[in-house]
Amino acid sequence: MAARSVIKRTRNIMCGASLLLLRSTSHSFPFQNPSLPPPKTQLFPYSTPHTSFSRHFSLSPSGETSDEGESTDGWEEEDEAEPKIGDGGSGGGVSLQSVAWGQRALSIAEEVLMQFSEDIKLYAFKTSPRGYVYVRLDKLTNEYGCPSMEELESYNQEFKKRLDEVGALGDIPDDLAVEVSSPGADRILKVPDDLSRFKNMPMRVCYTENLESSCHEMDGVFFLDSIEEESEICVWKLADVKENRDPTIKGKPLNRKQKDWRLRLPFNLHRMVNLYVEY
């Protein structure tokens, strides 16, 4: 039984020096055993730190697609739990969820990746007990970390091929479903490791003023000003975005006081950092 696969890539819309990740557009390349009924609907989720959307693609027996459909027959959705570092999804890292064949599938994913350029890395890998494999690839030389659709499709084909070969030997299930995608707008940035890479982009920073559990969590949209490695402090400056401007005067930029203001925040007081998406 051949593996089924889905390829997803976030659509990037550039405006000046900013990236507006309006939504994640999914491209489906199903490879399914003829003995199985075709999936009636595939639901592809995409989200930002504050807004979630979904788009349905219905697949009829004739292979035609439409924007209708209400179920996800034939395809499992990733958990919609709050993302965190190392969750195998938006938080990157590996999550095998105690799946017996997970480590073998991960080794195959890493082997296949060696066939590609060195600037493409495995951002996240997750397996589910129901036989689904989720892979997110990060392109280090791309400003936003997004591999091209051709690169995602090529990796998907090679990975599926190897899974089928190993599955035929009985080392892993022979009917695994695969989803390959870019990290997406909701990727969680590690502090401080990922910050310098995205220093030219606004980031939404959730933080607290101290480590007490009762401390109120705050958030803001900032640019990284600097990182003080020895003292383990990030210095942030306000980003000139809508959320930080005077709402009573449309189009008014930040004033001098706002531009000069800085937030000095210890590494351990950062709760979550994401790329900022402005609509």
From TrEMBL:
Keywords: Signal. Coiled coil: none annotated. The keyword Nucleus does not apply. InterPro entries: DUF7912, Ribosome_maturation_RimP. Transmembrane segments: none annotated. Residues 1-28 form the signal peptide. Residues 65-81 have a biased composition (Acidic residues). Residues 54-64 have a biased composition (Polar residues). It holds the Pfam family DUF7912. One of its GO terms (biological process) is ribosomal small subunit biogenesis. Residues 188-276 form the DUF7912 domain. Residues 54-92 are annotated as: Disordered. This is Uncharacterized protein LOC101492481. It comes from Cicer arietinum. The lineage of its organism: Eukaryota, Viridiplantae, Streptophyta, Embryophyta, Tracheophyta. The gene is LOC101492481.
